[in-house]
Amino acid sequence: xxxxxxxxxxxxxxxxxxxxxxxxxxxxxxxxxxxxxxxxxxxxxxxxxxxxxxxxxxxxxxxxxxxxxxxxxxxxxxxxxxxxxxxxxxxxxxxxxxxxxxxxxxxxxxxxxxxxxxxxxxxxxxxxxxxxxxxxxxxxxxxxxxxxxxxxxxxxxxxxxxxxxxxxxxxxxxxxxxxxxxxxxxxxxxxxxxxxxxxxxxxxxxxxxxxxxxxxxxxxxxxxxxxxxxxxxxxxxxxxxxxxxxxxxxxxxxxxxxxxxxxxxxxxxxxxxxxxxxxxxxxxxxxxxxxxxxxxxxxxxxxxxxxxxxxxxxxxxxxxxxxxxxxxxxxxxxxxxxxxxxxxx
Length: 345
Fold this sequence. Notes:
By secondary structure, this protein is of the alpha+beta class. The chain contains 13 helices and ten strands. Helix 4 runs antiparallel to helix 13, helix 5 packs antiparallel against helix 7 and helix 7 runs antiparallel to helix 10.
């Protein structure tokens, strides 16, 4: 593919916003007969240059995306660009919405909760995305429902690799980083000597599986200390209570053995993932292969037409109510930046 320049890009609509950057729909106008649309993540160089760690995150995100271009469940990086004020990630445009939106919408949440095929498809595709990231030697470290997009074709795309980190078998991470409700106890620990590896993504994967069935994470707080206490002592209790609520609601509607079996399989999967000691956690020895062999996923057929149809129906239900429009916004800042900080981007 021929390199794209900023001169040929026209910003269209704002489609997402984070702490240090905004994501827009844009057009590549090079060659008037073939206008292509992309997503472009625009990062304010002045803001991210304030700390060394933020600069490291930017380069780590670029490295991870460059090495993970062959997975259809991960957003595809086209190229990176820069000017005096901004850094840009030019990426494929995904026509869809964050999983978070579907889980917070009453009608689509019910559709997800009532269909284990949808839950398994979303979970299995996230599993494949994380497995790909791990095999490339990266931690993801920020798995949550807002970083999983559901495209309108009925599949997931993992996005936002700003917290990714390259490690190897002899290297561990030490940074307190991520989103509290998805963090494992070892990250939440105040111990300054704590080290962790791929198993933190396994823990967060369990949180997503839980959320697909319940509609919300096990616990949400802004306190690191409170989150650590709950994660170490109360996840099983919370799960039992919330799962029983769903079972009671389904009583008389779906009392089949299949429903009961799936509930038991989810609980067993989560109990094996949410082990306090990382070495005891499902996935520690053989990664996500261990989860594929668990009864919850063991008989899942990734090529199942029925689950994909159910996914598309659920997505169409959401689109009918909320549409798919984006807010229009464009912000350009004009501040001086030390250009050497981003040399090589």
